[in-house]
Write a structure and sequence with these properties.
By secondary structure, this protein is mainly α. The protein has a single domain, classed as Up-down Bundle (Ferritin), CATH 1.20.1260.10. 74% of the residues lie in helices and 0% in strands. The longest helix is centred in the last third of the chain and has 29 residues. The chain is globular and about 50 Å long. Bound molecules: fe (ii) ion.
């Protein structure tokens, strides 16, 4: 089948974007303490970005004759981002660190997708994934900077 590997990685990306959105929502709800007012509302923008990317990737997947996952069961079976119950005990920085880890998983997914779409010759999807990857890297820089870290690569 044409674009078979592309379709597979696109569903991986949909799963991880969906899970990342849930993780961000959890911390948006459960956070307490210093910087709440700033970070709580900042995370609205983060969720908007994740939801927009999820829709864009799923719709592109349909355009190349694929079928996007669309149930929580499928998301949980596929996602590489840990699913943890919400708790009130984490510090603000621990929450940002977990969000950063989710974004680093998305960065890795997009990098794999960029490689696979190049191999399979799907130039339009390749171009789209590069743009989305750039936005993810920008968000990694911003969240890492808030934590006093450099964005870092390969860790
Ligand atoms: Fe909210």
């Amino acid at each position: 089948m044409r674009y078979e590997k592309t379709q597979k990685i696109m569903n991986q990306i949909v799963a991880d974007l969906t899970q990342a959105h849930m993780v961000v929502h959890q911390h948006h709800w459960y956070m307490l303490g210093h910087r709440f007012i700033k970070i709580h509302f900042y995370l609205d923008h983060v969720m908007e970005e994740l939801a927009d990317q999820q829709d864009e990737v799923a719709e592109r997947l349909i355009e190349i004759n694929g079928s996007p996952i669309s149930t929580y069961e499928e998301v949980l079976a596929l996602t590489k981002i840990p699913d943890r119950k919400g708790n009130w005990e984490l510090s603000m920085d621990e929450r940002l660190e977990l969000i950063l880890q989710a974004y680093k998983q998305l960065r890795d997914d997009y990098e794999e997708g960029i490689k696979i779409t190049a191999e399979e010759g799907d130039d339009s999807t390749n171009d789209m994934l590069i743009g989305l990857h750039t936005a993810i890297e920008k968000r990694i820089w911003i969240i890492a900077a808030e934590l006093g870290e450099r964005p870092g690569r390969g860790e």
